[in-house]
Write a structure and sequence with these properties.
about 200 residues; mainly beta; Elongation Factor Tu (Ef-tu), domain 3; 2 domains; 12 strands
């Protein structure tokens, strides 16, 4: 489990194929300011909101292996570049965001990312299957960042939802690089997931 509070911005240094076209890849990640002293093989680290298992560690870098299935259902894990990082929470961790599983539910698309006063407004288009989980003042995770939904506009293809980003959040995460048309990893609120199951199960 995670909190959605990004601990550091790291960088994918290498993407190494594990086999043929249907195989996954091994990522070598520079952890940036994320301390690795307490990280051991088998620990979980969220990369762009996707929970990954540490399979190697050397100095300030760590390695994870990403399946082809995960690559097709996430964004930001297939090439070198900056990534949001968060270690799994412990029972003594301050829960500053919301409970995040690190399981990406789907991809959204950036509609716009524009300045509004001292902040920035990020509008994301959620696919139809995730639109019903977007709620005013509800929680959503975008590329591993816990955020609050400010507005939801439903349409035939899904829903557009708006997020207000304060300067600090922009500065300390990879969200600063988003542009219209970019794909983002979405994880819906954990409570909404269970409520939906209880209401639809026969």
């Amino acid at each position: 489990m995670f909190t959605g509070i990004v601990a550091a911005v790291g960088r994918i240094l290498e993407v190494t194929p594990l086999g043929g076209s249907d195989a996954g890849v091994r990522l070598t990640v520079d952890a940036g300011s994320l301390g690795l002293d307490d990280v051991v093989l088998g620990d979980s680290i969220a990369i762009q909101g996707a929970c990954m298992t540490v399979v190697g560690k050397a100095g300030n870098t760590f390695a994870v292996e990403v399946s082809r299935e995960s690559l097709t259902k996430t964004a930001g894990l297939s090439e070198p570049g900056e990534v949001n990082l968060e270690k799994a929470l412990s029972l003594s961790t301050r829960l500053g965001g919301h409970l995040v599983s690190g399981h990406v539910d789907g991809l959204g698309a950036v509609v716009s990312f524009e300045p509004v006063g001292e902040s920035r407004e990020l509008i994301i288009r959620a696919p139809r299957e995730l639109a019903k989980f977007m709620a005013y003042k509800g929680s959503v995770t975008i590329n591993g960042v816990s955020l609050t939904v400010n507005r939801v506009t439903d349409h035939a293809g899904g829903a557009d939802f708006s997020i207000n980003l304060i300067p600090h959040t922009v500065d300390v995460t990879t969200l600063k690089h988003l542009k219209a048309g970019a794909s983002v990893n979405l994880e819906i609120d954990l409570i909404a997931r269970y409520v939906e199951r209880m209401l639809t199960a026969s």
